[in-house]
Amino acid sequence: MSLDSLDPIVSLAKRRGFIFQSSEIYGGLSSCYDYGPLGVELKNNVKRAWWRSMVQERDDIVGLDSSILMHPTTWKASGHLDGFSDPLVDCKKCKKRWRADHLLQNESIKPKFRPEHSSEVKCPDCGGELTDVRRFNLMFKTFMGPVEDEAGEIYLRPETCQGIYLNFLNVIQSMRKKLPFGVAQIGKAFRNEITPGNFTFRTREFEQMEQQYFIHPKEAKKVFKVWKEERRRWYLDLGIKKSNLRFREHEKDELAHYAKAALDIEFSYPGLGFKELAGVHNRGDWDLSQHEKFSGQNLKYKDQETGEEYTPYIVETSDGADRATLAFLADAYEEVETRSGEKDGKHEKEVVLRLHKDLAPIKAAFLPLSKKEPLRKLTAEVQAKVRRDYMTQYDETGSIGKRYRRQDEIGTPYCVTVDFDSLEDKMVTVRDRDTMEQARVAIEELKIYLDEKL
Ligand code: ATP
Fold first, then answer.
1. Rounded distance from Cα 374 to ligand 1 centre (Å)
2. Tens-place pLDDT, residues 199-224
3. Torsion angle of C-alpha atoms 185, 165, 287, 222, degrees rounded to 10
4. Checking DSSP bridges between strand 301-302 and strand 309-310, what pairing results, if any?
5. Looking at the DSSP assignment, which residues form a beta bridge with residue 314?
6. Residue of the nearest CA to atom 10 in ligand 1?
7. What is the pTM of this model?
8. Are 161 and 130 in contact (CB under 8 A)?
9. Residue 103 and residue 108: Cα distance in Å, rounded?
10. Model pLDDT for residues 239-291, shown as the tens digit of each residue
11. Residues near ligand 1 with C-beta < 6 Å?
């Protein structure tokens, strides 16, 4: 079953505490979202899985957490002040504003908007004529210090990677790193998008998971191919269906100002079709050369063995934590015929979120068969044995079938039921979300059982 719109995901996200509209009580702030109690767990698990595969499991990549506010010259050097803009067109009739490259993509015209295209595309809403293209800089500007003047002008970073380039020397010197090596970081980025929307797919404040791999220029093509496969494999290993992923290579005239080669990993978002989930970019020596020029610092690398001195090339992997979280949610979402046995007509369809166990917000739910003591007390004692290691939830309201359904809907892989027999035989029933198989497990062995399963 595949969804034809994001609506069921948006509805589940709100109903079950994954994602809420920001500032809802004031009518909401457009394109800004808050991650609720389960959403923050899910997104943290996505980020943790990324960090584990990028930093923890590798010797050649180290982590960083650089500040959002950076020296304003950073953005002059990086080209963002002059070039980080989107092509904007307005409808002359209904006044609606559009991103020209997106309109072209809808018409299957190559994404770079050229003047001759203006006449080929009309307003998708009313069919009206569009204005000529204007460039609109996407950076959010603010002021540092008490005086709002030009000297205090500063930007919220539109991408996290610049903090990595500015720390290139610090990392090399402090970590005694030799090329090739990478630096990874996760953090917020801000873009004043012309047309945000489609839930958390395009927002003005979002989180990126970026990794910059510093290499000898002659390695660039090979390394680019390796990262392309690595990034795809990461999504597949975490359960994304192969048919929902594809690559899209950027054409030469579509490349960003810094890129020598670029590729999108696209996910088939319900209702949106294949859209960019992540990118792999060969940024050449653009970034380090520019920062060298503007800072006056030598950012070249000297190979101690060969004596060769050069500006490293960079192959970047750039994943959006929010787009990834939305992809995992959409990919895992499944509506099934009732399977929990309560055929009372109210539950013909049930939702099962088949999230990878590493990503599931709650790993095990603890359900006493009855609210009465001593079952309550025993359930709390059993839960206490594992809650230090795993996120757990306690639920005593409603029938067991209803409680299983609630957990299936949020993707909990295991439900642990404590019944009256448990008082005597010191065993509990563990139910598997996907197979619905039930196993009787000794309370003393439960932690080991879950360790093996999870
Ligand atoms: P798009 O073409 O969709 O605007 P982009 O090519 O500008 O994206 P990059 O600059 O390559 O995106 O950013 C890297 C990653 O950051 C993207 O693959 C995406 O996952 C994420 N990202 C970028 N812009 C947004 C946004 N407005 N909202 C949420 N995530 C975003």
1. 53
2. 999 999 999 999 999 999 999 999 99
3. -60
4. antiparallel
5. 214, 284
6. 159
7. 0.92
8. no
9. 9
10. 999 999 999 999 888 888 788 899 999 999 999 999 999 999 999 999 999 99
11. 159, 191, 193, 202-203, 206, 208, 276-279, 318-320, 322-323
